[in-house]
Amino acid sequence: MNKVLIEYIIRLFSIISNIYSSIPLANVKDFISSFLKKEFSNDVVKDFMILFEENYIKYSEVKTQTSDQQNLNSILLDLTREVNDKLPKQERFIILIRLLLFNKFLLRYPFHQSGNNIRLSDLLKQISIELNIDENEFLNCKSFIEEKLYNLRDKQDLLLLCEKKPFNFEINILEKKDFKGQLYFLIIKSINLILFYYKGNESVTLNNQIIFPENIYIFPNGANIRGDNIEPIYYNQILQRFLSEDTTHIVFKASNIDFRFKNSKNGIHDLNLSIESGQLIGIIGRSGVGKSTLLSLLNGSLKPHQGKVSINNFDINKDQKKLEGLIGFIPQDDLLIEELSVFKNLYLNAKLCFGDLSKIQIKEKVNQLLHDLDLLDVKDLKVGTALNKLISGGQRKRLNIALELIREPYILFADEPTSGLSSSDSEEIMQLFSEQTIKGRIVVMNIHQPSSDTFKSFDKILLLDKEGYPVYFGNPAESIPYFNTIAESFVTVADSCQTCGNINPESIFKILEERKVNKKGEFVSHRKIEPQKWHEYYKKKINETNVTKEIKKEIPQITFNRPNAIKQFLIFSERNFLSKFANKQYVMLAFLITPLLAIILALLSKHTSSDFDHYVLYGNENIPAYLFMGVIVALFVGLIISAEDIFRDRKILKRESFLRLNKISYLQSKIFFLFNLSAIQALLFVVLGNWILGIKGMNFYFWIILFSTFSFANIVGLLISSLFNSIVVIYILVPLFIVPQILLSGTMVPFDKLNEKVIHDEFVPVVGDVMASRWAYEALVVSQFKKNKFQKNYFKFDKQDSYARFNVLFLIPEIKETLNDLHDALREGNISEQQDNYLFLTNELKKLSVLNPIEGYEETSLDDLSYKDLNIIKEYLTKINSNFINTINKISIQKDSITHELIAQLGDIDKYNEFKNENSIKSLSELVLNRQSFKPFIKKNNKIIRKIEPIYHLANSRIGRAHFLASEKKIGSISISTIAFNTIILWLMTLIFCIFLIILFYRKF
Q1: What is the pTM of this model?
Q2: Where are the alpha helices (DSSP H) in 908-977?
Q3: CA terminus-to-terminus distance, the chain
Q4: Does the pLDDT at position 768 exceed 90?
Q5: Which residues contact 814 (CB under 8 A, 6 or more apart)?
Q6: Backbone angles phi, psi at 105, to 5 degrees
Q7: Which among 500, 482, 504, 501 has a CA at the least distance from the CA of 492?
């Protein structure tokens, strides 16, 4: 650590020590001194301790003079901002780590918070924000330092080195036999900084310095950890942990193929080759010369800029339908579904290739191929992952190859098929491909570092040089003499032994890359023969050996026959179902997460009001919050459960796009499974939560709303899953999706309290309308208030009563006041100044006259307004005011009648009150009625905008827009219940995202 960094840390400690002055200063000094001694000599430590004391006194005086605790907090944050301008990100992290360690130290003193209203952990969070440190990385550091590993945001950033895993949750494990302790490592990926601590009794050192158990250490680049019972552990080591015979003859030709990457010389240059049935071809070259690109050009995945690739004179790019099923491609990636058995992986793949065969016929083909590949004994084993192996690497590779061999393609391309395998497994794979050529098939593979035996097993090799220039195509055994002759070079016996036949392919590259020598006898950077010149020799050799043969333009019969779209959907669904339910952790999580959340939320929300001596639903103030959390659960769980689905299949999808399987069928299978799972999850959440809280008769309404929300989140999850290529990015996006849903739901922050640039006085703002949480929460609240067994008896009458009372109490008096202003203006002769009042009068009269027409009054301009008009309006208002009062009285009588009927049905008034308490909810009523508002209405834009009792107020918009918690929405002249309307909106949003998903999926896969 440099001097500037230490000085900042010392100053920060001195300020914090003053803020939390109840901590004994001697203990703080001990803490600072102990960490300094690990880095510096005693003399330097002494100087820094003097600096601490000077700063401590300085800030003590500031604290005494101002008598304001907040001032020190401000000074602390100002100092943090100063750090931003002077220190790089890694050193900022070191500051934060030291402060977190200081916080851990202070936690030993339970009285350290006294006298201060800001917790140090909260202050540190503010400091991390000022230091521009990612929130997740801050929380990861905090949880790690406090040894609360279960709180880590991303547990993939944690690595445990131990003999045996000590707990259940999933983290990276590095097992070390006979090591009795535990080393915990945390990586901060943005700067590749690794923290660690040790638990155990063994002697462990960091760069020969003793590591004390449970102390936090930084693992620096180039450092090593050593112990008695473990091999040395190096920084890079830990960093890496994170970080049948055919009668039809096939001629496969590539003629004058040219392909260039944009703004680059790299690609494939002027390639010509001809391959015939029964040949095994190896594409060899250094990394980055274009071997995989060439495979993509030859198998039709990429289209060349010039030239033609053909099979028996059929162009593979123009005649795709005719050549369908002739070409097979085995990518380097693992294409197995880890949760399924060896048999199921191959069987389900076969069903997608043989739509015309019965299940029995397909099983026979699968078992026969498993027998041929020596996989029959392991057919019932799960394939597992590449790390958690249940079958060997060689068996795994053979099964990947079997996915293509099952449909018996005539031309097979393989990308690095022996990569990562042992020499014996590599030999088995090469033998497998050789067997395919015996059946008359063509096999073309690229290979990076072939052994002598592998090299010799090829019928021909195609050698690619820098920038994608082909420089040799011919017999492997002739390659070294060919290059020797041109380069006038030689190879050692070890490179090419004429006696034993061994060939070292590396010797070819030695000849190719041989450098020129200057006059001093020193090698220069230029090659003796450049790739372009080697390519000229290649073209000359190709022309000499290329004998024109008559090629019959015919296509061999193949067994590949894709099933129709419906059958593909059923197969994809079967595969999806089996893979999901084979994963016990997934099943447990999927079916227990919503019941557990329902139990937790319901129990914590089950509040007994002081007005009652036992729990009563009516007095539970937490129901609105519970309903909101139900929406968030639906969004979060629905998103998480689907966010990996397409991402996990991306490699399989790449292959299946090569087979041109129906993409819609695949998506339908995913959606079908997720929607069914979500329906169950929503049902479990609703039934359990409502039962615990005593919410009766609302299960269906709650279920349909939450199921719709789950489904929307499922589609968003699938969209995210198909959009990004990193699981980390996918899960980082989850809070990015959830947080706006929380903020803009109308719950946490009322819509009229948002930024004035986005709010709408009359309706929910557009930013709220695009949030699924707003529609779901509103539907839940409205359904609970409107449809509960008690309130539904009164709702229609309460709505009419509310309309009449609002007009009598607020609207008509406001209009009368406006009339008086207009009357005065007429008398004084300044009527032209009353434009706003006149517009207000006109607007409100139009609304009133819809149900109560005005007789004798015709709308006129402001200048033509007369006393007569005003008198007519005044009489009209008096009349309808009387009508509204009569309506209120009639409704009161009707409601009394309903009450008497209910009392008669239930038995007595006590049973009636009990019935009310079991079904209606006071806190929910207060929310939807908004009677505590100081503004029952606002007057804006020359009209009255009602704020009180929003659930009884019908919005004026004819396109479905409305204020929050309206009980109905209007489309044209049709009024639609909010429950139905909001559910429709959720499904429309789901449909829109479905369309985006389909478009993106077709472009990407």
Answers
A1: 0.70
A2: 909-919, 922-929
A3: 49
A4: yes
A5: 844, 937, 939, 944
A6: -65, -45
A7: 504
